[in-house]
Amino acid sequence: MRIVPRWALLSSGCAPVLLIVGWAIAGALEGPGYDPLTRTISVLGAYGRPGYWVMNGALAALGVCHLLTAWGLRVASGAGRLALGGGGLAAFLVVALPAPSSGGSLRHGTATVIGFTLLAVWPVLAAWGGGAAPWALRPGPACAATALMAAGGIWFMAEMQLHGIAGLAERVVTAVQSLWPFVVVTSCLARSGSRSPERDEQPAGHR
What we know:
Layout: H1 7-30, H2 41-44, H3 52-72, H4 78-96, H5 106-126, H6 139-162, H7 166-194
Helix pairs in contact: 1-3, 1-7, 3-4, 4-5, 5-6, 5-7, 6-7
């Protein structure tokens, strides 16, 4: 029995590719005046920017990928799947509430924080442990992933306050967050390829 459909490999694998290609193209459209090390992704998706449609299109596609992956990850905990799906919905909210061409935006910032938080906690919420669980859904790796994402968020906030390399910090943490669903799906498919966990070995809430 395959515990995760193979199409989830496509939806989860496309997420980091679409995000990174999106910010790369949008950054190129900005020209040499845009420094990706110090300027955030939100700048690329702000009203009136040359890469507005590219960056926001990539974010919307990212949201679709997360929603599809959450749907396909039936072996994960329900709370984790909801958090991943919520992170996908938050991407749509970020698109609907883009940053202004200058200055900050409380609504955009709030949507971004919600999305980051949901995507940071979903690994640990999705874990259910036990010898039958794929390794990425075990408490150890899941907690490590959440801790790494949280540390990345702290790094980003520190760089924002210091007016440092906030762009680099944001790109690193968002890339990790977009990649982790692919890691989980891959581990689930590898597990099902060797020995599928029996349904009665999973907690009732995960069935």
